[in-house]
Amino acid sequence: MGLFGFLCFLQFLLGRHHMAVFEAAAFVLCVCQHAEFSVCLAGYHHPHHPQFAARDPFGGPSQAQRPPFTTEVTVPVSMQEVAGYIEKQVAYLSGGRGEDSSVIITLPECSAFSDIPEEALAKVLSYLTLIPRTRQPGVKFIIILDRRLDTWASIKTALARIAASFPGNLHLVLVLRPTSFFQRTVTDLGFRFSQEDFMLKMPVVMLSSVTDLLRYIDENQLTSEFGGTLDYCHSDWIVLRTAIESFAVMVKDIAQMLQAFGTELAETQLSEECSAVEFLLLSHTEKYRRLKDAIRSVMREGRQLLSNLETSRKEGDADTCWDTTQDWDTMQRLLAQLTDMEMAFDGFFDKHHLKLQQYLQLLRYEHSFQEMECSLEKLRAQERNISITGETLSRTEQCVRELDGLEKRAQDEMSQAQVLILHGHQLAAGHHYAMALIVQRCNELRHQCDTLTSALNTKRNSLTQAQTLLRLLEEAQRWCDDGAYLLANQQVDKFQSKEGAQAALRDIEKFQEAAPPLLCAGVDVLFLEYESVLTPCLQAHIEKTFQKHSSVQALIQSRQNCLRKLADKHVRPIQLVVPRPENPPRAKSPLFSPKHGKRTSRKSPNSRKIEVIHDYQTASSLPYSIDGEDGTDLLKRHVMKELIETERIYVEELLAVLLGYRAEMDNPSLAPLLPTSLRNKRDVLFGNLPDIYNFHSSVFLQDLESCLESPEAVGACFLERKEHFHLYECYCQNKPRSDSLWRQFSDCPFFQECQKKLEHKLALDSYLLKPVQRLTKYQLLLKELLKYSSGCERASELQGALEAMLDLLKSVNDSMHQIAITGYEGDLSNLGRVLMQGSFSVWISHKKGPTRVKELARFKPMQRHLFLHEHALLFCKRREEHGENADKTPSYSFKHCLKMSAVGITENVKGDVKKFEIWYSGREEVYVIQAPTLEVKIAWLNEIRKILTNQQKQLKEELCHSTAVSEQMQMSPPLSVSKQQRASVSSEGTESGHSSPDPFSCSNQRQRNRRSWPGAPYSVDICEGLEDWSGANSLSNPSDTEEEDAARLVAGRYRAFVDWRKNGTDNFIVKCGDVIQLQHEENDGQWLVKNLSRRKEGRIPAANLQGILGENIKNHSNRLGDPGNRKARKLSSP
């Protein structure tokens, strides 16, 4: 019986309960015997998705085809409803039988019979007749009405109620009339006159005594109270009936639970998530176990009850235990029904569970198939992205390496695909319901693997062929270059002898014998042989190679003709003359030293010779000199080749670091060697090195390779990619953090293992320094290339590229200094870009009251490191930690900030040409700056003038856009004195700096006096500073004689002169008059301060402390040398 039959079986059991549940077993067993059992879930739903069309593990009728539930009927009478009246013995079934096996129902003497409601009496009679009628349909009943102690009125009422309420086939009513004379007489008379009324409804026999009762019923079927021998205990009968009915109810509950569980299974929707299906399996299994436990519990109770009935049946007579036998049969049927239900349920659930497990297997296989299909498709896309051939040999070799890596990954993936295919065959061999779909997936995977393998083989063949062709072309070009160098390096002074000419001829002939075989074949032959991999770029490359071969061959033939003539004739010696002054000696480039494999000329730069040509010599027989136009091209070409080759090596080294170190940090096998604190600091250690590698490998290297034949065009490449080089600025700014992290973990076994795998002789820190070294190398190569391209049309682009790289070096250097600033509470990025930075000697004077008072500190210069931003000028103090473990990177403690909108300058100060003034807020504060050199001063003045000029232009534009302001300016002077002082430039001395010319009228004068910053002389310093930033700064640091500002902060107690509040979590407050104690200065330039008046602690920047303490700290600091004064300036201890 499948789910359909199983549900029908349970429905029938529940719907027929009004027949008495304990008698329904026989019919249910009949249904079970004739119902065909097939385990398939009717109406089991899953997501309506085409992909799952073949996945449905269940069949059966749909929801619309399910059998309708039976109509609801009245709940049948049970012992529970009539137990109260049965216990009072209103009526009972003694088990006795009368004529024709009629069932005897006894209504004994009951004083409360008349008080029983009609409905209750009807239920009692229905219950008592329902038991035999269920066992034996059409059975007759005999009622014994015992009224020996009652009256005729009671008898009459009882007979009337019986006639109205008795539901069965009443065969006979035997009435034991009252025994008293009066009531017996009244009964006889009443019955005589009313006999016809009762006889019409039911046969009634009026008996005078118990002895008359034996004429109708055998004494064995009567209980002892009627003179019979039938053993009957009313309480035992009640217990038995209650137990049987309770068991029947439990069987009904089991059927209901099975029906509910089957309905739940039928209405469950299958999910596409494996976790949901696994949870469904566990949930169904748990419910199945609970139902099994319930069935076994009911089975145990039923067997116990059946055992008791069997014992009673064996002890009684065969004639008197008829009802006991019927109860035993009922229990036997109920137990058999329960057993059949259990067996059917077990079979159904086992097959359902199997189908659900197969569905889960299919779902997992489908997910694995989709992941594998996606992986193979990605590999296929990566294979398509690899070019069949590269434009250059290096690019082709890179493609081959990429293909090698791709093939390795493809082999791993295809191995997993083979495992998946094998797993699919195992599922199909296990009679999986979706065997066709699984076999189809296996075939698809096998086809995709074959397709990928074929594509990889085809791509490898193409790349191998292209690589071979490019190597042959490179070999041919190298042979052409060697031929040109052979001609250029042959000594002309040896040609004047016949032996020298013959030796030169032999060298040329020997060289030609070593010509590559490629040059012997024609262009058409190469095109035909490598037709499958030819691209327009390769065709042009081949044609260019053969053109170059033709040119070199022509030079060789010309030289051979000349040498043959010299060998055949006696030649006059070559006359030496003084070189012409218009051809200045050119220094030989170090790039062509013997270490590059080229022979150097024995001639010194200052002893060049001019050859005297004989009459028989033509112009074509001139020696091939490297000092000519062709030699310059070769020099440029070799500088370009060095640039490209070093770029390739640089890219390869970056790739090795990224793959051999950075990527290995994610390798699980090396995880035990990697410290926990280092795992999340990969970006700190390597910075933006991946971005730098991507730029150079995919963009800049290709740009450089395209300029191999035209080196002058490399300047445009640098200018075009100028913005990309700002990646180095971020890298260099992160370099101090990276170095600090490396020093902390340099002895880590992880790095040693990676270095061992890469077979590097140097540690990781040497390779992390490569980007900084490469950045400084570019400007050197550009200078070398510019030296040989002085008369070239594109020399301006080379000059621009050189200036751009020098500016970049300067910007990187400045930014690396900027990140070392500590103690500045704001955001430095809001101040704009760093334009200049450097160390200076500074004097400060303040204007107080109506007169200007020069402080004592004016005559003691302070050493300050100045940072000129677009919107502000920062004064900082350089600090260097000393010690074995101290960080060598200098730091700068922030001291003061001047907004450029309120700054003015005085270019010349009396007494020193290297000094200039910066004054602030209308000369409220005047800073005398002494530069280390005059060039540095001029450079700073130029930059400051640019800022002030731009500010004036912006101000003028704002005034022009405001009509009201412009009218007011026509009525008043152009600018107030204070504004002119804030934004003007003066060329007078310090003492005469109160007045300044009009800022607009003097702009032209400034423009004429401006001098460009001499960037080239500092390029070497900048480069050295970048390559060794962890060492010393590029500028000297004079001794700071006063050690701090004129007011040096010393630990001790002081009284605050002004209020100060620090906004933040600690909300530290200092009020005027508070006594504060300076504890100590921390590394970030802040002091730990304790407010003794308010009993709070906080941190205050040193610059803010000077304003809080005012003259107190200044007077105190002037007396630092005197212990007595120091002690006097501090407040006494409380």
TrEMBL record:
Domain PH: 833-949
Signal peptide location: 1-15
Residue segments, region Disordered: 578-608, 967-1013, 1114-1134
Keywords: Guanine-nucleotide releasing factor, Phosphoprotein, SH3 domain, Signal
A Gene Ontology BP annotation from the UniProt entry: dendrite development
Domain CRAL-TRIO: 118-234
Any one GO molecular function term: guanyl-nucleotide exchange factor activity
Family: Belongs to the MCF2 family.
Protein name in the entry: ATPase phospholipid transporting 11C
Organism in which the protein naturally occurs: Cyprinus carpio carpio
